[in-house]
Please model this.
Amino acid sequence: MGLIERFFKEPRWGVHPDDHKRPAADAPLRMLPPPARLYMPLHQHVGGAARPIVLVGQKVLKGELLADAQGNISAPIHAPVSGTISAIGEVTAPHPSGLGFAAITIDNDFAGRWIETDPVSDPFALAPEEIARRTGKAGVVGLGGATFPAAIKFALGKRLQVGTLIVNGGECEPYLSSDDRIMRDHADQVIDGARIVMHAIGAREALVGIEDNKPEAIAAMRIAAAPFPEVKIRPVPARYPMGSDKQLIQTLTGKEVPADARAAEVGVLVHNVSTCAAVHKAIRLGQPLVERIVTLNGGAVKTPGNLFVPLGTLVDELLDFVGRVATPARLILGGPMMGTPLLHGRIPLVKGASGILAFDAQEALIPAAGPCIRCGSCTRACPMGLLPIEMAAHIRAGDLDGAVGFHLSDCISCGCCAYVCPSHIPLVQYFSHAKGELMTKERAKLRSEATRRLAEARVERVERETREKAAAAARRKAERDAAKAKTAAAALATTPVTQVEGEIA
Amino acid sequence: MLIAVGSLAVMGLALGGVLGVAARYLAVEENPIEAELQAMLPGSQCGQCGFVGCAQAAVALAKHEAPVTLCPPGGKALAVALAAKLGIKADLSGVADTGPQLATVAEEICTGCCRCLKVCPTDAIIGAAKQIHNVIREACTGCGACVERCPTEAMTMVPVPITLQHWVWPKPVVAVA
Amino acid sequence: MSLHSIPAPVSAPHTTTANTVSRVMATVMLALAPATLFGFWLYGWPAIYLWVITVASAMLGEAFCLRLMQRPATPILMDGSAALTGWLLALSLPPWAPWWIGVLGGLFATVLSKQVFGGLGQNLFNPAMVARVALLISFPVQMTSWVGPLPLDAVTAPGPLAGLLITFKGMPPGLDAMTSASLLGFAKTEMSRGIDLLQSLTQAPALSWIGSRPGSLGETAGWLIAAGGVAMMALRVITWHIPVAMLLGIAVPAAILHAIDPAHYMSATTHVFSGGVLLGAFFIATDYVTSPNTPRGQLIFGAGCGLLTWVIRTWAGYPEGVAFAVLLMNSLTPIIDSYVKPRIYGRDRKGTALEPVK
Amino acid sequence: MKDFALMMIGAALVNNVILARFLGLCSFMGVTTRIDTAAGMGLATTFVITVSSMADWAVQHYLLDAYGLGYLRTVTFILVIASAVQFTELTIRKVSPSLFQMLGIYLPLITTNCAVLGVALLLVEGHMSFIGSTLFAFASSLGYSLVMVIFAGLRERLALAQVPRLFAGPPIAFIVASLLAMAFMGFSGISTG
Model:
């Protein structure tokens, strides 16, 4: 792109951080020898946690169902290795709080025996609903990080008659290269997966957006897509957050997703390249999602690169494999812009984990926050057109509703604002805090409504019981009276009838 | 003198007349605030405020006869909201905000007397005579009515445990100005 | 592994820009330096002393307040904002003003218009301009006594010692003849005497690109100030919106009325190159803290600054209006900010969600 | 025509009711915590000042001057103003209950807002024509509203600033008011020049 073209075509939003992708992206993909013990969390996706269907001590094969989807939005969990279930308990979740969540522990028997799979040779002969069903059963979720169950998105796309599938090869987060790697090494899988997804949602074309800082991936994908004119490879400017759905849709199609609406409502659906590859495996090979490519990167990593790992592997084991230069000063799951800080390394890898970053002290250093000088950098950087400066000021002053007035709900937590802030104010943390508090408030409101219903039900019950008691008492009294009347009548029967009649009259 | 008195009287009458007419045409029906206040209260009729139920408490609040801090289950958040609704400044110093709480039964002490069942405003306690009682978490409002009623002190209030779904990022600490 | 020693969670992003507040301030100072040095050469030692005094008092005022509030003074002073405030104030003062003007101004700027608001980023008005206006209102004589340029290498220029005397003991009678009005002041006085511009400007102090005329340090070297401003834009410290809008805001009405009645209204070039317009447009109105955040808001703000400057210069009692105009627009900044907002993705300008378009 | 324009600019900006004459300070400090409220107050006061000054002009000319009742000026003016305020109050309560609630006690207090009586008395001293006095009153109240709104905007931002405890609240508000008054001094000389 020429200078002038760059000036006009370059998006006005976002930031351009140092990408640190190489040399990790160029290192060939390595296989991690499966560890001796793995921990499969039941909640690796958006929606309800999976319900375990195995028992402790049970032997399972690789790919065997461990826990089934539960509820409308959920995904099943499968065994990443063959072995024995040794426990169903709690492990630390990949979450900033360091709280625990439920997981199934498997002791590897190192046999690596797959369960019997059900491959499909011609997926295009299957009904779209069948593809969605198989994808759902294979536990495929969005691998870009959102971890939304893929099958549900298929059904949505089908229902809303989406015409365009957007394949997200943006991977705009610095340091990460797992998508880059999958496009370089398995471009055919990605393209085939994308075509299967197109079939599943009934899309006419697929646009593959790849940031122009990955020329090798673009070349590989172009070759793989050459036989299929409906799949178009579209290089996009490397700019963070290009990999965000809304920004990629706008860059590729010029369409804007309305606030509070889904992308499908403007006729597009976005799937990540890794998700497409997973769909390919789920349909063509019948294999559920039990492994993925993970980037290991950061100053504290001795041999940065991409690893092919079974899910459920502990982060520490990954770091042991690639080696440490120094004790990591910070561990991050995901990229540096939006990733989750990990409190320690004994946390299992989940489906949405695209990378593990181990930062050395220098990388992890963020200067102490200073006062806001209202420079407006955050406003210019915000890809959503929000005013981070005002939202944060209101949140700091405790005025959460004020922040909502500035459309806090539209914030995608991309981190651009905090990245460019010369005062290094933790803007994203302000927003996360406010969103959490507002959610808590919302829950409290729902709860108080439920309470009111319960209280009303109780009042009704008490009233009903009193009423019934009264009725019962009245009935008993009536019965008693009747009995009394009967005896009286019996007694009266001895007296002349005319007298009784006279009494009644 | 007469002119002064007369002119003032005439002016007063004229302006008064205009205002009288205006008052008739611009009359507003006051919106009863009690209903809104009652909607804000928890509605569990637990009676900890000293009134029979939330409706009565709302009436007292609307007349400014009760402090906005009257509702222990509502906590600080409710006091602030009520104060804002009533347009007054609340003195929150007396409100100990313990955060949301739940009742729990110490199973080894519970005698199964069924007394707590009867006072629970939301029927959140299940049990039968001589059976250990249990609290349904989803239904418990944390009003604490059962704690006072329990003869063996088997009922205690504990803070609602924090889970992954309930965890909230802490507010960044700001250097004090 | 001792990863347990990691403290409470640190929120994303885990990486950040190399830009810092002190770096921004340092860039602005660098951009100001050429014009300032040129001014030093033009007005000699008294100007240098006044600059030093003003900057030092501004920093002293800040340090004093920070000590009072028991906050560490050194790191906060190191961000450079107090020094920059003093610097900008010094550039807007008459170069040979007595020492106490600098001291009062510097203290007023950082104490009363910055630290009482809570320090950097919290103030509502531009501290340098608050100080300048306060000085102008309180000491009109000292604040309007300008000297003609007397370059350091000129024979009559006061040496280091004589300069000290001028700054601390006032102007010696012999040099009193040097004082004269600035161009704007001169025109205003003549106008009030009934002499119109066509006549008065012929004997006015020469208007020159070089800056060789009576005025403040920041007034004379217009082209160096403008160059500094353009450099800041290139370095993305400021955007073009405020400077361009402000220059247009003053040039457009000036050009129109000058075309109609040249005897009573000065030309656009005279307006733009006199007084503090260039300094104001590039360095003062662009102050982050007191100007709007959005590009459109900045356009409104800049145009307002320019227009008000022109109105005050043309019709009001004061010959120069930049400081007043900037303060007035500072006061409107919160309102501009609350009504001019960027369009949010997926919403229209009013904030309602867009209609889905297939 | 030009005289009227200059007089109006003078009344609104140069001799601003609040910043130069220091009238109406109670509402200036009282209802300027939010821009909407301040604008509502400005609107209400504008209405009251304009209407009551028209009525006052009539009272002055046809009653007080005509019958030599100058000593009744304050009483009659206040009577007129109080009625205008009552009328405004009724209207706002009908049209915008939320604004009515936000203005609270300050709405009836427009009666004792010295800006209203002050403008009326200034008009008498100025011996202006009916149109002139109406325009003067209108411009004065516009100046009042402008400063109210500007000050409310500044205070909204102040509410979010980390003002030292010593200055938080009214002290900093008064400092801001003084700086604002200083900025408005830039307009001085317009009406005379």
